[in-house]
Amino acid sequence: MPNRTKEPFIRIIKRDSMPFAKRVLVRVLAILASLLVSAVFIFIITRSNPADVYRSLVDGAIGTGRRTWNTLRDTSILLATALAITPAFKMRFWNIGAEGQILVGGIATAAIMRYWGNSVHPLVMFAAMVIVSVLAGLVWGIIPAFFKAHWNTNETLFTLMMNYIAIQLTAFFSIVWEAKKGSGTIGTINQKTQAGWISTGFLPDIFGKFNYSINVIIILALTIAMFIYLTYTKHGYEISVVGQSENTARYAGIHVKTVILRTMALSGAICGFTGFLLVSGSSHTISTNTAGGRGFTAIIVSWLAKFNPFIMILISFFLVFMGNGATQIASEFQLNESASEVITGIILFFILGSEFFINFKPVFRRNGKESAA
After folding, report:
1. What pTM did the predictor assign?
2. Which letter, b or e, does each residue of 66-84 get, where b requires 16 or more Cβ atoms within 10 Å of its Cβ?
3. Are 305 and 82 in contact (CB under 8 A)?
C-alpha cells in the first residue's frame, strides 16, 4: 500500500554553517529592522519624529563628558558581572546568584571602609578591600557548587535562594550601620575624607577631571584575562568539556567535581570583586539595590555574546547606553523610562531572532519538491 503521508509545507532544519560575511549581514539587517519597528512604536506613542527620540537617547547616554563616563562606568560593571558568570554558564552550571555574590562583596568592602577608613594606610585598606570582597564572593559562589558537586542539587534554585539571603544580610547591615537612627540607610561612606574611594580624577589631563578610567582599565584587563583563560588554558578547556558532557569529561580523566568547585569559586570571586568596584569606585555606599539587577542582565549579555568576552563589551555598552538614555527621553518627551525599555526589548528581540536564521533554515515544499530558503 503506498505511503500517503504528505510532506509538511515548511520544515526547519539546522544549518551546517553560514559564511561569516552572511552572518554579519543577517545581524545588521536585524538591527535595521528593529530600528524601523521602534520608530513606528515611537511615533505611535509620542507623535514625534523618531529621529528626535533617537537623538535624545544619544544625548542622555553620551551627550556630555560626565554622561559618557557614567555610561562607561556602568558598562564596565555590567561587563564585569557578565565575565564573572561566563565560566559557570559555559560549564552549564546555571549561576543565577551573581546578585548575591556582588552584594556580599559589597558588604565586605563597606565594612573595611567604615572600620578602617581613618586608621590605616590607603594602600593597606585597598588591598584589604579587594581581598575580603573576593573571598566573600568566592565563599558565596562555592557553597552551591559544593552541594551540586557532591549531591547534584539544583544550582539554579540554590543560587537564586542565596540571592535572597544576601539581600537580607545587606538590609541587616544597612540598619546596623545606618547614618541616622531609623533611616535604614548608611548614606555615603567616608564622604568627608573619601577614604577607600577609587579616584575619579586619574590622569585628568588625558581623561578629564571627572572620570572612571581606573574602573574601565581594570575591567578591560579582566576581559583580556578571561578571554585567554577560557580559550588558551587547560582550565578553560576542562570547562568546555564538562559543559558539553560530564560523562565525556570523566572518560577523558577530568575530575568534574574539582572543575565545578574551581569554576564557581572563580565566578563568585569576580562577582565579589565587582561588589568592591561598585562600593569603592561608584556608589560609595551599600544597599539592597546596589547590584541593581545586573546579575540577571549579565545572563543576557553572556548568552548573546556566546561566551566571547570581547563581544560582551559591545552588548554591555548597548544595554547601558539604552538604559542611561532613558532619563533624557523621559524628561524631553514626558515619557517614563519604560519606553526606552520597550525599545531595547524590540531591538533585543530582533537580534535574538537573527540568531535563529543563522543557525536554522526553513525548507519549503513546492510542487512535491523541497526548496531551502
Report:
1. 0.90
2. ebbbbbbbbbbbbbbbbbb
3. yes
Q: Which three-class secondary structure state does DSSP give residue 193? A: coil
Cell of 240: 568546555
185-195 tens-digit pLDDT? 899 999 999 99
Which stretches within 234-337 are classed as H helix? 234-244, 246-251, 256-278, 294-304, 309-333
Handedness of CA 142, 80, 302, 289 (dihedral sign): positive
- For CA atoms 103, 138, 151, 153, give the dihedral sign: positive
Please name the amino acid found at residue 358.
I
Contact 96, 159 (CB under 8 A): yes
As given in the structure block, the three cell numbers for residue 45 are 506613542
Q: Where are the beta strands (DSSP E) in the chain?
A: 10-14, 360-366, 369-372
Residue ranges of domains in the chain, CATH in brackets: 75-325 (1.10.3470)
The pLDDT tens digits of the residues spanning 65-104 come to: 999 999 999 999 999 999 999 999 999 999 999 999 999 9
- 280 Cβ partners below 8 Å, 6+ apart? 109, 113, 126, 129, 196, 197, 198
The widest CA-to-CA distance across the chain, in whole angstroms, is: 92
